[in-house]
Amino acid sequence: MRNYRVSLRQGSQQVKVKWFLILICDILMTGYTLGWTYHYSNTTMDWATARQWCNTTYTDLVAIQNQNEISYLNKTLPQKKDYYWIGIRKINGTWTWIGTNEKIAEKDGHWAEKEPNNKLLEDCVEIYIKRHKDEGKWNDENCGKQKHPLCFKAHCNATTCSNAGECTETINNYTCKCAPGFKGPHCQDAVQCERPVIPQHGWMDCNGPHGNHSYMSTCKFHCAEGFSLQGQPERNCSASGEWTGSTPVCKEVWIAKVLLNRRMDM
């Protein structure tokens, strides 16, 4: 874990903030970040301002995925007496992850004992980090209270999986689930088909968006003069790496040959 300190300006007031980035050796070795990272500010702010700060500086307030993530945050983050805002808010009477609009049943949340209690119009949520009791648990709180924003920065985007797969983020990692016809850690490679057999007395033209003999490519077959194509005139490279159909053949046009021979005998 590395700490960095910078200065940001809000209007005419200079605000010092501090955040941490979760780094692993893969970043240093490959030059890019794997998975999401967490960030926080040493400056306290109300929930709405905290979310705006996260949206502007990173991606959004943290959305908790599971107990492992809570344990990780509780272990890694420093203790703050004001604790941290997270990305949950009560909307139309229902607790909701604001980034995805996913509803949270109270029984399914990681609430502290006897929470949420809505004691003072408490429609936002903080997380207790390194608290002597209920550490890692949630507490509903008035949205106007001053707390530290806890943000995340997502690293999955449209190009992470080469526009050919679904990107799923985890802490310090992500995985690409490739669409049919693509492979590789980033779905960067199209499935290859072996070069089709060219029929005797014929030729073929192949092309496609990922190469002449790759997924979604098409080969069209033609026959020399005096020969007729028998079979499918084109074959497509499928997601399985196999060509559709079978190899066509070029058959000599016998009728034309007989007529030609008769004319020559006359």
From TrEMBL:
InterPro entries reported in the protein's UniProt record: C-type_lectin-like, C-type_lectin-like/link_sf, Compl-Cell_Adhes-Reg, CTDL_fold, EGF, EGF-like_Ca-bd_dom, Selectin_superfamily, Sushi/SCR/CCP_sf
SUPFAM superfamilies (UniProt xref): C-type lectin-like, Complement control module/SCR domain
Gene Ontology cellular component terms for the protein in this record: cytoplasm; extracellular region; plasma membrane
Pfam families, alphabetized: EGF, Lectin_C, Sushi
Bilayer topology: Single-pass type I membrane protein
Entry keyword annotation includes Secreted: yes
Domain C-type lectin: 33-152
Subunit structure: Interacts with SELPLG/PSGL1 and PODXL2 through the sialyl Lewis X epitope. SELPLG sulfation appears not to be required for this interaction.
Keywords: Calcium, Cell adhesion, Cell membrane, Cytoplasm, Disulfide bond, EGF-like domain, Glycoprotein, Lectin, Membrane, Metal-binding, Repeat, Secreted, Signal, Sushi, Transmembrane, Transmembrane helix
The family this protein is said to belong to: Belongs to the selectin/LECAM family.
A single BP term in Gene Ontology: cell adhesion
Record function comment: Cell-surface glycoprotein having a role in immunoadhesion. Mediates in the adhesion of blood neutrophils in cytokine-activated endothelium through interaction with SELPLG/PSGL1. May have a role in capillary morphogenesis.
PROSITE patterns: C_TYPE_LECTIN_2, EGF_1, EGF_2, EGF_3, SUSHI
Domain of life of the source: Eukaryota
Disulfide bonds: C178-C187, C223-C250
Name under which the protein is recorded: E-selectin
Chain coiled-coil ranges: none
Organism the protein comes from: Anguilla anguilla (European freshwater eel)
Localisation: Cell membrane; Cytoplasm; Secreted
